[in-house]
Amino acid sequence: MLRHLIRRLGQAFLVVAGVVALTFVITRLLPGDPAVAFAGPKASATELAAARQRFGLDDPLWMQLVTYARDLLTGDLGTSLHTRQPVADDLALAFPASLELVGAALLVAIVVGIPLGIAAARYRAKFQDFSVRLSTMLAVSVPVFWLALAVQTVFASGLRWFPVAGEYDSTLDTVSPLTVYTNITAVDALITGNWPILTSTLHHLVLPSLVVAAYPAGVVAQLTRAALIEESGQDHARMARALGFSQTEVLTRFSLRPVLNPLLSLVALVFAYSIVNGFLVEAIFNWPGLGRYAADSIRSLDIPAIAGVTLLVALLYVLANLIVDLLQGVIDPRVRRR
Questions:
Q1: Could you say which of 78, 205, 229, 302 is the most buried, measured as most Cβ atoms within 10 Å of its Cβ?
Q2: pLDDT at position 176
């Protein structure tokens, strides 16, 4: 297990180094001058020179890359040209809101997707299977922005069952102010017993989390169905049926566990994908997460902020895959020999 851990950490380090270099190159290829974005379009030549010197834009590219990597090791992602605050501080405020949204969405996807996959495998080639395959195909295929606008129009603007946008009712900041510990509103409200804000946050969370959950729920259900059908044809499943176990018991007790490894890998990939996929959802529902921060950064040509968001999302992919690799090594010792 130790060798497996060291090997995976080494691979993750190489991937992160490549991501850092690629992020640096991409930010340098973006159109526009960061010095102008920071100092303003009416800045004098002296002010522009000072801005270029501050951000090291006059240094050779290799020296800028070395400086960029050195600053990253100390947690310095630069200063936002838009907010004039450290990018790391901005991300520390925006990321928890995205994590709250995606975490709720993945919980819904797992709770809904796995039972649907089991039901489809149990009633293979029957009406239930056809219904699950059709619904999951639609969930995977429908553009997320269209789905977000549709549910917002129907359930928020039309039926008025849920709020149109926002993270919680802003009037509660005066009536029942929230004490912040984690910057995840639902968690902070639960920790401090702030039930009005917790109730309002959960109410606001329903529609955007369901929209973000649509794609991962469909993929989880499809993978679960396909993997269970394959496993149910193995010798251990046939033996269980010969011993008198029902098809449902064979699927849930004997075939589901081997499916956990591919499901873990899928959830890791879907988690990082949902962070990015949620950007449009956050913009539509005015959710104060990475999506809104990234949109503001792109509009203002805030290169340090754009690089910070890009690097954070890439690191999430690497971290999620690393965690899954280690968990797979614990669940199935054969994985450690790969």
A1: 302
A2: 87
Q: How far apart are CA 143 and CA 145, in angstroms?
A: 6
When divided into structural domains, the chain yields a total of 1
Q: Which of 185, 191, 25 lies closest to 103 in space, CA to CA?
A: 185
Helix, coil or strand: residue 86: strand
Alpha carbons 325 and 319: distance in angstroms, whole number = 10
The domain containing residue 138 runs over which residues?
95-290
Q: What pLDDT does residue 208 have?
A: 92
Residues of the chain with pLDDT under 50: none
Residue 234 lies in a domain: yes
Dmax (CA) for the chain in angstroms is: 85
pLDDT tens profile 122-154: 888 888 888 989 999 998 888 888 899 999 999
Q: What is the pLDDT of residues 234-254, one digit of tens each?
A: 777 777 777 777 777 777 776
Burial of 3 (0-12, 13-18, 19+ CB in 10 A): exposed
154 belongs to a structural domain: yes
From residue 121, give the alpha-carbon distance in Å to each of 41, 126, 129, 253, 258. 62, 10, 7, 14, 15
Each residue's pLDDT tens digit, 25-54: 777 766 666 666 666 667 677 777 777 766
d(CA 108, CA 334): 31
Q: Is residue 135 part of a domain?
A: yes
Is 124 domain-assigned?
Answer: yes
Phi and psi of 79, rounded to 5°? -110, 130
8 Å CB contact between 136 and 222:
yes
pLDDT at 32: 63
Instruction: Report the CATH number at residue 264.
Output: 1.10.3720.10
218 close to 137: Cβ distance less than 8 angstroms? yes
